[in-house]
Write a structure and sequence with these properties.
heterodimer; A: mainly alpha; Helix Hairpins; B: 93 residues; mainly alpha; translocation (chain A)
Chain lengths: 90, 93
């Protein structure tokens, strides 16, 4: 890793820049994770027997599968966070 | 390099940055769990993907998440109990 800037002498603008960079890296990592998962899951669901091209029914299936995976992700996130809230009130 | 050790290196150096990293680390931990749970519950609950998430699948997914948390709580509680039992029987000796 590159040498860490000595943050004690960091200006406000430098800090903002660093925060922006970290946020961007996090966004990229999240997108990559989701992309990998979706490809893996939807390939399994939709490509039963790989043929010479991705036919239209497979494409339709993948499109729906992507949307449903994201729905599921959001539902898991919602369920999990409301559960966390309940647990913290106990 | 993990956010955690990065935040550690910055500890005390810049409070604003430190706070930002702590919050982001927490968010990442939460998201990591959501990724893992979505992965598992998808395999358990999803049949052929259709044009919308039907109520049966929705039910299955939210039950799946809740039962996973129940399971992990149960494991922690049981481990605590056996630990307590072990340490109290040590005192008896």
């Amino acid at each position: 890793m590159d040498s860490l800037p000595s943050t004690g002498r960091m200006t406000g603008a430098q800090r903002e820049e660093l925060i922006e960079q970290v946020k961007q890296q996090i966004a990229i990592a999240t997108a990559q994770e989701l992309l990998t998962k979706i490809s893996e899951k939807c390939f399994k669901k939709c490509i039963i027997k790989p043929s010479s091209s991705l036919d239209s029914s497979e494409q339709k299936c993948i499109a729906m599968c992507m949307d449903r995976y994201m729905d599921s992700w959001n539902l898991v996130s919602k369920t999990y966070s409301s559960r966390l809230q309940k647990e913290s009130m106990r | 390099m993990s956010l955690d050790s990065f935040a550690g290196q910055l500890a005390g150096a810049d409070p604003q940055l430190q706070q930002f990293l702590q919050i982001e680390t927490q968010k990442q931990r939460f998201q990591g769990l959501v990724h893992g749970l979505t992965d598992q519950c998808w395999d358990i609950c999803m049949e052929k993907p259709s044009s919308r998430l039907d109520s049966k699948t929705e039910h299955c997914i939210s039950n799946c998440v809740d039962r996973f948390i129940d399971t992990s709580n149960f494991v922690v509680n049981r481990l605590e109990k056996t630990q307590q039992f072990a340490s109290s029987s040590e005192l008896d000796d």
